[in-house]
Amino acid sequence: MSGVLDDSPGGEAGEGPGAVPVARPDKRFGGSDGSDGWSGGFYAAVVVRGFRRYATYRTATAAGVVTNTVFGFIITYSYIALWDQRPHLGGYTEPQALTYVWIGQALLAPLALMGGGFEDELMERIRSGDIAVDLYRPADLQGWWLSSDLGRAGFHLLGRGVAPMVFGALVFTIALPSDALTWALFLVSVALGVMVSFAVRFLVALSAFWLLDGAGVSQVVWLAGLFFSGMLLPLTVFPGWLGELARALPWAAMLQVPADVMLGRHRGSDALLALAFQAGWAALLLGAGRALQAMATRRVVVQGG
């Protein structure tokens, strides 16, 4: 699949000494103006490639599991002290609150709430000029990176999400669902949360077309994500207008909603409304990403390329 799933240059864009090497479209998968490049099989291959890429980092994965587990224990004991003083804080029983902690640790890497996703790589490609290769691939830029990020998230959910949750369940009294439907809704909610997370980070990465160094924007969004996703405390704990605002922002769709789905706080039609909230933010932010991508590709600015 040379020229499609690698960055091998196969030609030049434009003429003259300033031309940027790019990869020519592979006709087996369709050109930039064809429909074959949008096939499900093509993007499925990118998902698998993203999964396999992160699966090679075994030492980093093991270190991540240990880190998530240790922090899970620290936060759990903090929650125990807090819920001993304030039972049913935020509408959670203590077992539910402890479950919330371990859901957060399980989803921290899949949602890339503390970085580790594609955005740094994409911003570097924009800065260096390698983005020209991506723009010339027989695939949509957003679709390519979304597929790759889904593969990354899938691996981290299995590789770094399951083990901390198991450790938490073995050591503490937590409230795991007993019915298959709740688990299924939870997985759907996690998938939607990953898409919202990707959409936010894609917008952040595209800011590098104008800022050339999007590190500042990335850090601001990262801090906002930790606070407004519910990673530090459930958003139902936030008082008054702050709580209402936090629960309406897209970061709530990343962690708070999946956690509440798993804890059974969203059932029946309420669960469907919660999923619709996530899907709505995903569609809105992905649409904004496509609009910003169209603006960016009309004026590719390269620093140092």
List the helices and strands and how they pair.
Elements: E1 11-13, E2 20-22, H1 40-55, H2 58-85, H3 94-107, H4 119-128, H5 131-136, H6 141-171, H7 180-206, H8 208-211, H9 215-228, H10 240-248, H11 256-262, H12 269-297
Antiparallel strand pairs: 1-2
Helix pairs in contact: 1-6, 2-3, 2-6, 3-6, 4-7, 6-7, 7-11, 7-12
Overview in brief:
The protein is mainly α and 305 residues long. The chain has helices spanning 40-55, 58-85, 94-107, 119-128, 131-136, 141-171, 180-206, 208-211, 215-228, 240-248, 256-262, 269-297; strands at residues 11-13, 20-22.
Q: Please, could you describe this protein's structure?
A:
The protein is mostly helical and 305 residues long. It is 64% helix and 2% strand. The chain contains 12 helices and 2 strands; from the N terminus they run E-E-H-H-H-H-H-H-H-H-H-H-H-H. The chain has a two-stranded antiparallel sheet. It is globular, with a radius of gyration of 21 Å. The two termini are 27 Å apart.
By DSSP, the count of extended strands is 2
* Biggest sheet details: 2 strands, antiparallel
By helix and strand content, what is the structural category? mainly alpha
* Percentage of residues in helical conformation: 55-70%
Tally of separate helices: 12
**Cα separation of the termini:** 27 Å
Shape descriptor reads globular
Strand arrangement in the largest pleated sheet: 1-2
Pick out the low-confidence regions.
1-37, 301-305
Strand content: under 5%
What is the H-and-E element order? EEHHHHHHHHHHHH
What oligomeric state best describes the polypeptide chains here?
single chain
